């Protein structure tokens, strides 16, 4: 079980450091919740459940560490840099992660330059494009609420 108080403290510190470094407080941020699992099939089920909740999913990668192989990916959203929103996402995702037997490795984002002229996400300002091909699952099987 994850300690939500500790996770919130980490979230507050990350946000504080980003803003202290000059990151744009008004920007939309790509929030990547990092997850890992030793079983690809169980990871895939987890990310399908997260996808059903409206998150985007990065492509899974195979990683070897200390002779052990596991799979990692990110559960991704685009939101304001707000600790309450990130905490709400963690409260939504952590039960799915625990149920799957996966490991939550925290979240991350990117510095947003308030003086940047070009939108790094393209002309429409949207980070997400059609990324459904990242995982090989049948979208018709997904029930949206």
From TrEMBL:
UniProt entry keywords in alphabetical sequence: Cytoplasm
A GO molecular function held by the record: endoribonuclease inhibitor activity
Residue ranges of every copy of the Regulator of ribonuclease activity B domain listed in the record: 9-109
InterPro entries membership: RraB, RraB-like_sf, RraB_dom
Role, per record: Globally modulates RNA abundance by binding to RNase E (Rne) and regulating its endonucleolytic activity. Can modulate Rne action in a substrate-dependent manner by altering the composition of the degradosome.
Subunit structure, as described in the record: Interacts with the C-terminal region of Rne.
Gene3D superfamilies (UniProt xref): RraB-like
GO CC terms: cytoplasm
Protein name per the record: Regulator of ribonuclease activity B
Region of interest (Disordered), residue spans: 108-132
Family membership: Belongs to the RraB family.
Compartments where located: Cytoplasm
Originating species: Haemophilus paraphrohaemolyticus
Primary subcellular site in the record, as a coarse category: cytoplasm
Ranges of Acidic residues composition bias in the record: 114-132
């Amino acid at each position: 079980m994850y300690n939500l108080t500790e996770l919130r403290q980490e979230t507050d510190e990350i946000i504080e450091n980003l803003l202290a470094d000059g990151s744009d407080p008004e920007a939309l941020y790509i929030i990547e919740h990092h997850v890992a699992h030793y079983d690809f099939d169980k990871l895939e089920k987890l990310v399908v459940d997260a996808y059903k909740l409206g998150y985007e999913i990065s492509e899974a990668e195979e990683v070897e560490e200390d002779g052990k192989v596991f799979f990692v990916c990110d559960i991704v959203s685009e939101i304001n840099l707000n600790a309450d929103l990130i905490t709400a996402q963690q409260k939504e995702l952590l039960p799915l992660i625990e149920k799957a037997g996966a490991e939550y490795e925290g979240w991350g984002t990117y510095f947003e330059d308030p003086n940047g002229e070009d939108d790094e996400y393209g002309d429409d300002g949207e980070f997400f494009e059609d990324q459904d091909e990242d995982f090989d699952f049948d979208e018709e099987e997904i029930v949206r609420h």
